[in-house]
Automatic annotation (TrEMBL):
<feature type="transmembrane region" description="Helical">
    <location>
        <begin position="372"/>
        <end position="393"/>
    </location>
</feature>
<dbReference type="GO" id="GO:0016887">
    <property type="term" value="F:ATP hydrolysis activity"/>
</dbReference>
<dbReference type="GO" id="GO:0031152">
    <property type="term" value="P:aggregation involved in sorocarp development"/>
</dbReference>
<keyword id="KW-1133">Transmembrane helix</keyword>
<dbReference type="InterPro" id="IPR050352">
    <property type="entry name" value="ABCG_transporters"/>
</dbReference>
<dbReference type="GO" id="GO:0140359">
    <property type="term" value="F:ABC-type transporter activity"/>
</dbReference>
<feature type="transmembrane region" description="Helical">
    <location>
        <begin position="405"/>
        <end position="426"/>
    </location>
</feature>
<dbReference type="Pfam" id="PF19055">
    <property type="entry name" value="ABC2_membrane_7"/>
</dbReference>
<dbReference type="GO" id="GO:0031288">
    <property type="term" value="P:sorocarp morphogenesis"/>
</dbReference>
<dbReference type="GO" id="GO:0005524">
    <property type="term" value="F:ATP binding"/>
</dbReference>
<dbReference type="InterPro" id="IPR017871">
    <property type="entry name" value="ABC_transporter-like_CS"/>
</dbReference>
<dbReference type="InterPro" id="IPR003593">
    <property type="entry name" value="AAA+_ATPase"/>
</dbReference>
<keyword id="KW-0472">Membrane</keyword>
<feature type="transmembrane region" description="Helical">
    <location>
        <begin position="596"/>
        <end position="618"/>
    </location>
</feature>
<feature type="transmembrane region" description="Helical">
    <location>
        <begin position="479"/>
        <end position="500"/>
    </location>
</feature>
<feature type="transmembrane region" description="Helical">
    <location>
        <begin position="447"/>
        <end position="473"/>
    </location>
</feature>
<protein>
    <recommendedName>
        <fullName>ABC transporter domain-containing protein</fullName>
    </recommendedName>
</protein>
Length: 623
């Protein structure tokens, strides 16, 4: 027999009241029917060949522009209650939980949500926790680091020692003391597998993240899924102990074993988007409807089986109406709203969020050794390859074309290398969406920290590649010009990173990102000014180089290389006697290296902002 785990030694660091009463009235949720037009067409076809003998589907339902997922759902959850949300698969449990936790950002939600009888405000999410059904965790962090990250962001103003104590207590409560320093593990973006926790252990880490702040209201979407029966009971007892402190806990749950089912103070049953019962006498209620639980049957299994049967029966709508009537006429009037205001927990500042996120981002990069090493090795190999192909160039008119080629291939090499980051951007986005929905940080510090680490790496990679290539190819090796070239190349690299991350954030899929990014990169390369000098472009395409960021990067390094450079003539007639003639030949004499670099920086800023805005506003949730 597992002993319940106490929370008595937890301090209320946030200083806010534990536990709240939550009332939801007439909640409905509708989404656009994406198949509306297709269904309408099919319906017309069916009407043409209508045969009442064989048509079974309800044509009217397929025909609606909006699909109703939840329909007029109401209920009350008292302070300190442990509530089970039950129903057949697809009945709307997770959707209701998402709406109660204010995590739905798509579809049309109507109805009222009250905390202690008052409309919920902006701070609502700060005193609730939500534990998702899927475990979205950073694979490279340890159990301790994962929980400490939540403690750092969600417990501002609490001392380091207290935060560590809190983290260790939660780790103990979710039964992971022996795994405290194990990595979470999983498959990293790019396919590298990191050994780590089992599925059930990850579940416990996710639950621990929800418990770290000692919240007033906890929502858990199927907290016991993936756990063995002992671990499931242990987790549920942990939750029960929280409720004894007054915390309100709501879980969606499928088929709990009888010992777990007994722990719940209240059961809510949803069938096909409608509530049919909410209370603590579920078996008696089903009996009154004519469904009796056999003695030897698990009551949770019985409830679910009965719910499935009711959903299919012709009496379903009557049962729903009967419950709605009971709610309107009896239960609603019996609600006793506690006269307590909920204190709002503090939030950490953006600078602090940035610092914590930066640390995590950097740790993630260092621990993803395969990625870090491959980027460094690729930079050295590519730099050496270009440098060797054009090795020992002289400052002569006959080597001008080769020098132009070296500069161009360095530019394109650095433009193409961020393609390998597509999966990294998209997998990071899943974690970001999950953490943002919990309101633990703002998107801006997240994006800034991610890009700070990326920019630092890119500067280092560019420095390596340019140093190797410039040394071997004998490009203009003066301190000022060399470092200017490194700066331009690292901006070309970052611009391409921002460009690809914009596409990833706009499209949300790796296939589309790859396809758009590769097509546009080819256009960028074609009109960069190497293959065809800008003044020789056909008139119809002449404008293209003006809107081509690669043109500005390439022009900047070409001017940096050739400006005021005397060239030796190897053959007569001599094509170029000095570098300025080269600059003129390529049609970029109106630019200085500084002005072209300035436009490159402006393009980088544009893609940086576009990528951030797409991250902030698009693809918030999968469903
Ligand atoms: N945004 C959406 N667009 C279209 N359909 C949706 C959307 N959100 C939910 N649904 C549909 O609503 C139904 C209820 O989904 P929900 O995930 O809430 O069910 P559930 O009871 O939690 O199921 P399960 O127990 O299998 O997790 C499902 O059929 C789901 O496909």
């Amino acid at each position: 027999m597992i002993e319940p785990i106490g929370y008595n030694d937890f301090n209320d660091y946030g200083g806010y009241n534990k536990g709240v009463q939550l009332t939801f009235k007439n909640i409905s949720y509708k989404v656009d029917n994406k198949n509306y037009k297709k269904n309408k067409k099919n319906e017309n076809e069916k009407k043409k060949n209508f045969d009442p003998e064989i048509v079974e589907i309800n044509i009217d339902n397929l025909n609606e522009k909006e699909i109703t997922i939840l329909n007029n759902v109401s209920g009350v959850i008292e302070k300190g209650e442990l509530v089970a949300l039950m129903g057949p698969s697809g009945s709307g449990k997770s959707t209701l939980l998402d709406i109660l936790a204010q995590r739905k950002s798509t579809g049309k939600i109507t109805g009222q949500l009250l905390v202690n009888g008052k409309e919920i405000g902006e701070a609502y999410k700060k005193y609730c926790s939500y534990v998702t059904q899927e475990d979205v965790l950073l694979q490279t962090s340890t159990v301790f680091e994962t929980l400490k990250f939540y403690a750092d962001l969600k417990l501002p103003g609490v001392s380091e020692i207290e935060k560590i104590k809190r983290v260790e207590k939660v780790i103990e409560d979710v039964g992971l003391t022996l795994k405290k320093d194990s990595r979470v593990g999983g498959v990293l973006a790019g396919g590298v597998a990191v050994k780590g926790l089992s599925g059930g252990e990850k579940r416990r880490v996710s639950i621990g993240c929800g418990l770290i702040t000692n919240p007033s209201l906890i929502f858990l979407d199927e907290p016991t899924s993936g756990l063995d029966s002992v671990a499931a009971l242990q987790i549920m007892k942990t939750l029960l102990n929280l409720t004894l402190k007054g915390v309100t806990v709501i879980c969606s749950i499928h088929q709990p074993r009888p010992e777990i089912f007994e722990l719940f103070n209240k059961v809510m049953v949803i069938i096909k988007g409608k509530m049919i019962y909410s209370g603590n006498y579920i078996l008696e209620y089903f009996e009154s409807l004519g469904y009796s639980c056999p003695n030897n049957k698990n009551p949770a299994d019985f409830c679910l089986d009965s719910a499935v049967t009711i959903g299919k029966s012709s009496n379903y709508l009557n049962i729903c109406l009967q419950w709605e009537k009971k709610w309107e006429e009896e239960l609603l009037n019996e609600i006793d709203y506690p006269p307590v205001n909920v204190d709002i927990p503090k939030t950490s500042s953006w600078t602090y969020q940035y610092w914590i996120l930066l640390n995590r981002e950097w740790r993630g990069f260092i621990r993803n050794k395969g990625n870090a090493l491959s980027r460094v090795i690729t930079a050295i190999v590519i730099g050496a390859l270009f440098g060797s192909c054009f090795a020992g160039l002289d400052e002569t008119d006959s080597d001008v074309q080769k020098i132009m080629g070296t500069l161009f291939f360095l530019t394109t090499g650095l433009m193409l290398s961020p393609f390998s980051m597509i999966t990294l951007f998209l997998s990071g986005r899943e974690l970001f969406n999950s953490e943002r929905a919990s309101k633990i940080y703002h998107s801006f510090p997240y994006y800034l920290s991610m890009m700070t680490v990326e920019l630092a790496i890119e500067f280092f990679v560019s420095l390596l590649e340019v140093t190797v290539c410039y040394t071997l190819a004998h490009l203009r090796w003066e301190v000022g010009r060399f470092f200017f070239a490194v700066l331009v190349y690292s901006f070309i690299h970052s611009l391409s990173t921002f460009f690809i991350s914009s596409l990833a954030n706009l499209t949300g899929t790796s296939d589309l990102t790859f396809s758009y990014a590769s097509s546009l990169s080819v256009i960028f390369m074609l009109f960069a000014g190497f293959y065809v000098p800008t003044n020789e472009l056909p008139k119809a395409f002449g404008w293209l180089h003006w809107v081509n960021p690669a043109f500005y990067g390439y022009s900047s390094v070409v001017i940096n290389q050739f400006q005021d450079l005397p060239l030796k003539c190897t053959d007569e007639p001599c094509k170029f006697r000095n570098g300025n003639q080269v600059i003129e030949y390529y049609g970029i004499e109106d630019w200085t290296k500084g002005s072209a670099f300035g436009v490159l920086v402006a393009w980088s800023t544009f893609f940086y902002s576009l990528s951030y805005l797409a991250l902030h506003f698009l693809h918030r949730e999968k469903r």
